[in-house]
Design goal:
Helix 8 (238-257) packs antiparallel against helix 9 (264-277). This protein has a six-stranded mixed β-sheet. Strands 7-8-11 form a three-stranded antiparallel β-sheet, with helices on one face. It has two domains: 2-129, Creatinase/prolidase N-terminal domain (Creatine Amidinohydrolase, Chain A, domain 1); 131-345, Creatine Amidinohydrolase (Alpha-Beta Complex), CATH 3.90.230.10. It has 356 residues and is an alpha+beta fold. The protein has nine helices and 18 strands. The chain is 33% helix and 21% strand. Bound molecules: ligand LM6UYM6L. The site of ligand LM6UYM6L has 13 residues, from loops. Residues 139-338 form the Peptidase M24 domain.
């Protein structure tokens, strides 16, 4: 069904086929979980008639069933086998290629087909994946509920004196216990480290006076959640309290602005205006959010350049932040779906400042 939709789009846009390597698109189209980081050539080839064939290493022989598939063994040349599949499906010339395909695979395909003219697959896949159906929304809600539950539990842990790494590991473990796994490596950024939005948890111990940014997510049957809450350890600096209030207001303003039919950049503007008016515009150093689904970052991106028109079924984060060098930062993030023309929060953990 999904492969047919991709085929129809390819037909309309004049592509001779698509080569999809393991990852979210491969899973979306086939339902097969194939290890993304494997170095052995694995490709789903689809043509505009909706015919498809998988080339896979023989170690997947017991995983890929009920699919037209050719297996290759270590020691064989997989590129000549892929060439045969492409020829049989009539794929050549203008071909869609998975955006994240490994360069060595791409080079191998180039060298075995001199008519090969690649285009990024996501120009079509984004159209298919951006709007989630009811089943997908249910899975996203489940992933969001795990994120909320883990936050509730964190509030009962004695985190003072833990290092960022220890807390991140504990969060990861709990997510893995409650779901299919983490959607990305948790961020724990304490004190001055909070000024780095993508801080990698280190050996700094969480202590009194800190604001601590906790940013993590779970996967439920492939679908991601992504939540951020910022908590205080004891009474924090007045400036940090002030930016907490502003970020919370900006997050609410952006959420309230969500409507079917507006552009993504209008949601970004709502958050940015609130922060800029309060005098902290230059300290909000990233977009307001990003689409969320099988990938933790996907369309629609909620940034100043977000031209995508929001539609029912789209899911994205709203996560403004203020980052003050040398002092710390605050970010508050929820996962939101457009339902019946308005925003609906999927993550619902308390956004009031919690002082531990
Ligand atoms: C996938 S790692 C980052 C997860 C985080 N929730 C996130 O998406 N962001 C943190 C700062 C901004 C935003 C981003 O766009 O990277």
């Amino acid at each position: 069904m999904r492969i047919e939709k991709l085929a129809a789009l390819m037909e309309e846009k004049g592509f001779s086929g698509a080569l999809v390597s393991p990852g979210a698109n491969f899973y979306y189209l086939t339902g097969l979980h194939i290890h993304e980081a494997g170095e052995r050539l694995t490709v789903l080839a689809v043509n505009p008639d909706g015919e498809y064939h998988i080339l896979a290493p023989s170690l997947y022989q017991n995983v890929i069933k009920d699919f037209p598939v050719t297996f290759w063994r270590d020691g064989e040349n997989p590129y000549s086998k892929l060439g045969t599949i492409m020829k049989e499906l009539g794929i050549g010339g203008k071909v869609l290629v998975e955006n994240t395909m490994r360069a060595d695979w791409l080079i191998g395909i180039f060298h075995s087909d001199n008519r090969f003219d690649p285009y990024p697959l996501n120009v079509l896949m984004r159209e298919l994946r951006m709007r989630k159906d009811k089943e997908e929304l249910k899975l996203m809600q489940k992933a969001a509920e795990v994120a909320d539950r883990v936050f509730e539990e964190i509030l009962s842990w004695d985190i003072v004196g833990m290092t960022e790494k220890e807390l991140a590991l504990k969060i990861e473990l709990r997510i893995r216990e409650l779901s299919d796994g983490i959607s990305f490596q948790p961020i724990v950024a304490s004190g001055e480290n909070g000024a780095n939005p993508h801080h990698e948890p280190g050996n700094r111990k969480i202590r009194k006076g800190d604001m601590v940014i906790l940013d993590y997510g779970a996967r439920w049957k492939g679908y991601c959640s992504d939540i951020t809450r910022t908590v205080a350890i004891g009474k924090p600096d007045e400036k940090l309290l002030e930016i907490y209030r502003i970020v919370k207001e900006a997050q609410e303003d952006a959420f309230q602005s969500v409507r079917e039919g507006i552009k993504a950049k209008e949601v970004d503007r709502a958050a940015r205006e609130t922060i800029s008016k309060a005098g902290y515009g230059e300290y909000f150093t990233h977009r307001t959010g990003h689409g969320l689904g099988l990938d933790v970052h996907e369309e629609p991106y909620i940034g100043p350049d977000g031209e995508v028109v929001l539609k029912n079924g789209m899911t994205f984060t709203i996560e403004p932040g203020i980052y003050l060098p040398g002092l710390g930062g605050v970010r508050i993030e929820d996962d939101v779906a457009v339902i019946n023309g308005r925003g609906k929060r999927l993550t619902r953990a308390d956004r009031e400042l919690v002082i531990l």
